[in-house]
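User: Structure tokens for both sequences below?

Assistant:
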Amino acid sequence: MDLDVFVSAHRAEWDRLDALLRRQRRLTGAEVDELVALYQRTATHLSLIQSSAPDPQLTGRLSQLVARARSAVTGTRRASWRDVTRFLTHGFPAAVYRSRHWWVPTALISTAVAVLLGWWIGTHPEVQSSIAAPDDLSALTRPGGEYETYYSSHPAASFAAQVWTNNAQAAAMCLVLGVFLCLPVIWILFQNMLNVGVGLGLMSSAGRLDTFLGLILPHGLLELTAVFVAAGTGLRLGWTVIDPGPRSRRTALAEEGRAALGMAIGLALVLFVSGAIEGFVTPSGLPTWARITIGVIAELSFLAYVYVLGGRAARAGETGDLTAAERSAAVPAAA
């Protein structure tokens, strides 16, 4: 493409579109039709330039022009409570459901890693001695030790808020950093499993595995599931960089990235629930069976939410991305 010739041939159309967009008075019916036609042609021109003869300055100008025209044609739209309801009942659970082939294996493999680490630490005294001195290990694992008092060391509300913030940050990092070929996600996930494995190994070696499970299961089931969902989605986003499939890499990343952003918001709500359980239920005086039952109910409720509501929404075509009306229109590109 000869860019100078192309610009000369279409400059008048772009200028006319810009003039219509700057009109202060209401456009006539004929002018509205003209604006729509010019918007469509300019969007196609932008696509042609981007694919055949990219020029940063011209691309920037036309991108702004197309964005302004699209806003004028489609109108502005404000989020409402209906959008929030749709996100919670369709968008978020569908996005989690669609990612199940990534986060379910992630959960199984990660759990196996944590158990193997716990077994290795619990059955090898030399590994335990490399973690901390015997007196320090005793202070951690003895009845009334640091593992038990950790959950009641601060006021429940502030502790729950702190836990929620930390976990939400970890989940967001998994979602965002997945684009870097999955490696940061694997590291974050391993660090989480290492922490679980160390606690599992040390408490089991002290003969207090039941106490450890009674402390971690009430909140840990839902909390770790949220982390696994975030990690699996991050891995999926990283794989999109490697293999975008039939879509262009740019389109695939945009679609999966928007869905991942929505999942970050949804998982923050899930982690809020697990943080509340960790702050108020885990250190409570309830019997161990009651605390674990609460954790199991929370976990099963989330899985039902994903597989029932999410599965139904996904089969209806929901992806967790923006709706077709909210996305930028796809325009033809030169071959």
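Moving on to the next sequence.
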Amino acid sequence: MAVLAFLTGYIIPFVLVLSLLVFVHEMGHYLVGRWSGVRVTAFSVGFGPEIVGFTDRHGTRWKLSAIPLGGYVRFFGDEDASSKPDAEGLSHLTEAERAQTLAGAKLWKRAATVAAGPIANFILAIVIFAVLFTVYGKMVADPVVAEVRADSAAAEAGVLPGDRLVALDGAAVRTFDDVRRYVSIRPETAITVTVERDGQKLDLPMVPKRTETTDQFGNKVELGLIGVVTNEERGHFRLVTYSPLQAVGEGVKETGHIITGTFRYIGNLVTGRMKPDQLGGPVRVAQASGQMASLGFAAVIQLAAVLSVSIGLLNLMPVPVLDGGHLVFYAIEAVRGKPLGAGAQEIAFRVGLAMVLSLMVFATWNDISNLIG
């Protein structure tokens, strides 16, 4: 029973969510690649041995593979699933055949084909958020302080109950969630909070304190906090509904917030403002999928949107074997007027693969350590 509960509660939601995101990502590559005249030999959700599949009339093998931790589109003329050109194989192709390879396409078409995967993930996130906002609306609260925690950054800066937070570092805020989102990714970073009190605006400098909190599932999370709380009376909690067009705009904003937060988090890791044990891998994603599944369909779909943005950003990292690495190669080719040599590309791919595997091992070790710790 325990094994069955683990499968249905964690593994199955994880596999379904990840498979959806991988399919959309690879479909971006596939559609733009086909539009560019490139032949596709394989479209796989998952890696490893094929479980089930079929070959379409264009010669593309569509398959579901055994290891559900990614996927790939393999173009004609590629050496492997990482889209590394098969230098030796390309040399034996006719001019007409070479024109159907990714390596034989114009530079801008290659770049568009590679960038289409992450872009598809961003579009999926926007669509998901737009649908959620249209169907369910969004609960918001005014950024009015009901309570100031003792010994907090806000208390030290002189924030008082009844103050309305109107700006953070000069940027206007509309809701209390705007404040939470901005502050949480800026631990130990000096900010200026503008409050409105008795009709006057006051600029109050403060430094959010790095604080370890526990979410509703018992997971430990490190955030920046200034120590202000709102309530129903002060915040006027309400459900805001959106038209489909307005919801798309909100979806774009929400996706932008995730992108900004991700870059800020990476910066916090580099500067030591956050610990690297917050970095999650497949185990934590599986755990989060199961936890969201317990809250209902909408929560799972929202998690899918967040993960879709994360997958898009991860693939844009300038690391060989990832989409961002290919784009770096194309940028170099645009400057040099010719691609890097096969030897240099081979070394770069090996280094990139080692980096990706090391990151996965580190993230998985963090996941396991957090689970048993």
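User: Anything stand out in the second?

Assistant: The chain is about 50% helix and 20% strand.
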